[in-house]
Write a structure and sequence with these properties.
It is built from 5 helices and 15 strands. Strands 1-2-12-8-15-7-4-3 form an 8-stranded antiparallel β-sheet. A 3-stranded antiparallel β-sheet has the order 11-10-13, with no helix packed on it. The protein has a two-stranded antiparallel sheet with strand order 5-6. The protein starts with a helix and ends in a 12-residue tail after the last helix. The protein is α+β, with helices and mostly antiparallel strands and 232 residues long. It is globular, with a radius of gyration of 17 Å. The C terminus is likely disordered. The chain has one domain: q2cbj1_9rhob like domain (Jelly Rolls, Sandwich), CATH 2.60.120.620.
């Protein structure tokens, strides 16, 4: 399977690559069900136009009113961040042998964090949304940032019936990525690939978003923060 999947990668520049049509019909239908379900979304601290939903994970309400997912079981972090394993439901569509998480683990850099997060961009709120994905950013090597072991960031696009929402690169203006439903993209996390998402003007830009960490960061939780009521 690895050889087949690797052959499907289309390289744009260095480690910026994508695979079109990465999802099976069953997986796409399953994601559509979650995207269409109006409950379970929470507004992120980065922007009121970006909402997240963790699949198969219960939520807890922090004192300040922020809703955050319970996390910490999937990759052996329970010894560091104890949670109740019963709070996690592992959907067999994603977790079965050869399923989506297995395929993602094959093509993405080690090690895949298997918390499955829907990250969706609603129409942009003018004058309010000025941070997060709408602002130029890169994930690693920022001034004063601790090295938490992150190796990669990726998105799996789940819709394309929206306007705007293109992926731009500050230092590479010739690269403009228009999401297509089913496309998996690996986005380098270094300053060279500083990027942002253009405002969504109509429709909803649904994605499955995730990160990969090196062995130390992924399995032992050293320098790995868990969301709080302040930053969820």
């Amino acid at each position: 399977m690895k050889e087949i999947l690797e052959s499907q990668k289309i390289f744009i520049e260095k480690d910026l690559w994508y695979i079109p049509n990465f999802l099976t019909e069953e997986e796409f239908a399953n994601f559509k069900k979650h995207c269409d379900e109006p409950t379970g979304w929470y507004i992120t601290s980065r922007s009121p136009s970006i909402r997240n939903k963790f699949i198969g994970v219960n939520y807890r309400l922090h004192p300040k009113g922020t809703v955050c997912p319970s996390r910490g079981i999937d990759l052996g972090l329970s010894a560091v961040f104890p949670t109740d394993e019963d709070q996690h439901y592992k959907d067999p569509v994603f977790w079965k042998d050869g399923g989506l998480l297995d395929r993602l683990s094959i093509v993405l850099p080690d090690y895949l964090v298997k918390n499955t997060t829907l990250q969706s961009f609603w129409p942009f709120t003018e004058g309010v949304d000025n941070d997060g994905a709408f602002k130029w950013h890169h994930e690693k090597g920022n001034p004063g940032q601790k090295d938490d072991g992150m190796k990669a960031a990726w998105s799996l696009y789940l819709s394309d019936d929206f306007e705007g929402g293109e992926l731009l690169f500050k230092n590479k203006p010739e690269i403009v990525i228009k999401p297509k439903a089913g496309m998996l993209i690996n986005i380098p996390i270094t300053e060279e690939f500083t990027h942002k998402v253009t405002p969504v003007t109509s429709g909803i830009r649904h994605t499955l978003y995730g990160v990969c960490f090196d062995y130390k960061g992924a399995h032992y939780g050293e320098n790995r923060t868990i969301s709080t009521g302040d930053d969820c």
